[in-house]
Amino acid sequence: MTEVNLGLDFGATGLRAAYSVSGRPTGFMALTGADWPWLLCVPATAGPVPVAFPSLKSMLGDNTPLDVAGRRLRPVEIVARALAQLSRRVLDTTSGTIGQVVISVPTRFGTTQRAALLEAAETAGLTRVSLISDSVAAVIGHTGGEGSGTYLSYGMGYDGFELGLVRVVRGRYRVLGYEGAGTPGGRFLDSHVLGSWLHALRPQGLMPGEVQHGKAGWLRLRAVAEQIKETLSAGDRALFPVLMAGPDNQQPVTMEIERQSFATLVRLVVAPTLDRADHLFDQSGMRREDVDTVVLSGGSTRLPELRGLISGLGTAVVPSGNEHIARGAALYANRLSGRSPGYEEQLGADTRDTAEPQMQPPPLNITLLTAPGMTTPAATPHRPTGLDAARRLIEEGRLDQAGKELRQLIAEARALLDKISTAPPPADGAPAAAPPPGHDAPTTALPPGDGEPAAPQGQGPSGVAHLLTRARRLIAQEQYQQAIGMAHLAWQREPDRPDVFEEMIDLHCTAATAAPAVETYTRDEEWLRCALGHDPNNARIRALLAERSYTQGRELSRLGRRTEAMKILEQTLTWDPDHKPARDLLHTLGRSRGS
Question: In 159-281, which ranges are E strands?
Fold first, then answer.
């Protein structure tokens, strides 16, 4: 039977696999989501949130049984079952046998954790197993196992961050140094968003109704906090309707989170990692200018503020997809099966975790908006909105943000004008019924679970349909930025409707590919990245990013701007490592430059 080599990315929120048949990358699959207890809920020892959300991954090596679907299982047993299920799926897909397996883990994984992971792999029937650091797997995934250069792997996932400085010489990899810690990461950000939320509610005697559902309710609240984080990072206005358990039973409350305070939080979180990067450079006798490429991995690296802050760590900064580390591990598995590892460091002894930075950022600025059932607004700091906010931003010299605020106002005003102009006349001459109080403020609950109300209210489907129709009309009129603003507005009004979400994504993609030119590349890429921020696993968006960057590189090459073209084409290959036209053109440009 055909031998299948397997690369596994053992992450905090899922297990991802890339597999190769006959030494060639073939496919990718994952175990993620609520079917497996990737994230747990336990009592917290300190902080504003009474519970904490450690990952199953961080518990590996601890023999304390966990309650899973009515059974008591040790973490190593749960991981073994996940590995076995994913292996069976690969075998069902390939009709082969599992050969060499490489699992990527953080460098700071201790001996006990590694031993438990190898035990889980053996229990799952995986016999030829090696470990590789996340940093090296990320760099191999980026280079495809070829080429030369100096790379800084910058990873920030749920359970912390890792920096790895890796030198590549003709496809051979040498690690120059590591830095890393369990904080900051996605877990810290999610917990801080949730803690800020509770901080704003307590003076009103309110708590989210979800807390009545115990651990399951708290886990759903954590997921909402993650959604808030992603919405804020995408640059959207963060309005979140929830049901509260208060003195008068459940009350619908809409919260607005100030995006600027979230941007400040991200800066506070990223700053210690930049210090660690400079320390790593000093220890290695290198400078930032010596790094050819910074390779990003982990969900938290999708935050636009983070990418802007780390842009000075190397000549180029390239993102990666969810499959990136698994692909690098699979390429290394192919090398091991051919007895040619080309990797000078093996994970055998403990690598000490560097000291975690002590961070106590202030709560995010949150306004509780009056909603039906509440007699008084919450006493939280007033946040200027609309023209007042724009004036304040201009006075503070934050012109870009003032422009965004004003463009949002214009888009909303146009939508209201369109609504007025297309409203049907009252029937039989009767006066039009006034909208119910608070109609424009959504009063939905959290995403439906056991016993939760699930009916979204507020802006009706017809209003959203009109906004989307208007957005399509703006696309036809080549008013692309306004169209995207209108699409965002529609989604904000109906955030739980998949059809509205898909239409918003499609409008981003249509605008970004409508009129590609050298001078519009930055704009087009920004729109596609915005779409990817909303839907990080969307293969279509990644393919469009690859094609748009390839088109740009090809045009720059035609104009004789070789260096720029090569940098853009390298980015194409980060979106699609199998993009043959980009690889061929990059090879041609590199050969002509060396001649």
Answer: 160-169, 172-181, 207-208, 238-246, 249-257
How many degrees, rounded to 5, is the angle at CA 431 between CA 427 and CA 437? 115
The rounded distance, in Å, linking the Cα atoms of 78 and 87 is 14
Of residues 264, 301, 273, the one with CA closest to residue 357: 273
At residue 223, the 3 state secondary structure works out as: helix
User: Tokens 């949002």 map to which residue?
Assistant: 408
pLDDT value, residue 273: 92
- Which position has the token pair 């897909």? 93
Q: How far apart are CA 413 and CA 206, in angstroms?
A: 34
CA 104 to chain centre: 19
Does residue 362 have a cis peptide bond before it, meaning omega lies within 30 degrees of 0?
no
Separation of alpha carbons 531 and 507, rounded Å: 9
Residue 326 Cα to chain centre, angstroms: 17
Alpha-helical runs (H) found in 95-213: 111-123, 134-143, 186-201
The 10 Å CB-count burial string (b at 16+, else e) for 222-261 is bbbbbbbbbbbbbebbbbbbbbbbbeeebbbbbbbbbbbb
Which residues are CB-neighbours of 558 under 8 A, at least 6 positions away?
none
10 Å Cβ neighbour count for 271? 14
SS3 418: helix
Q: What is the pLDDT of residues 531-544, one digit of tens each?
A: 887 777 688 998 99
- Whether 215 contacts 41, CB under 8 Å: yes
Quick one: pLDDT at residue 369? 72
What Rg, from alpha-carbon coordinates, does the chain have?
Answer: 25
Helix (H) or strand (E) holding 296: strand 293-297
Gap between the Cα atoms of 449 and 13, Å rounded:
20
Q: Phi first, then psi: give them for residue 250, nearest 5 degrees.
A: -80, 135
Q: Which of 530, 501, 524, 519 is nearest to 556 (CA)?
A: 519
Q: What 3-state class would DSSP assign to 247?
A: coil
Contact 168, 143 (CB under 8 A): yes
Three-state SS at 302: helix
User: Residue 149 forms beta bridges with which residues?
Assistant: 168
- Tokens 């979230």 label which residue? 262
List phi, psi (to 5°) of 363.
-60, 150
Residue 250, pLDDT score: 58
Residue 42, strand partner residues = 52
Kindly state the tokens that stand for 382: 């007033």
| Other CB atoms within 10 A of residue 436 CB | 9
Q: Who contacts 266 (Cβ-Cβ below 8 Å, separation ≥6)?
A: 189, 233, 303, 305, 306, 309
C-alpha to C-alpha distances, 376 to 370, 373, 435, nearest whole angstrom: 7, 9, 21
For the beta carbon of residue 12, count every other beta carbon within 10 angstroms: 22
CA distance 547 to 582: 9
Stretches where the chain sits below pLDDT 70 are 234-238, 240-252, 339-359, 370-386, 388-389, 391-393, 395-398, 400-401, 407-408, 411-462, 537, 591-595
SS3 content of the chain, % helix, strand, coil (to 5): 50, 20, 30
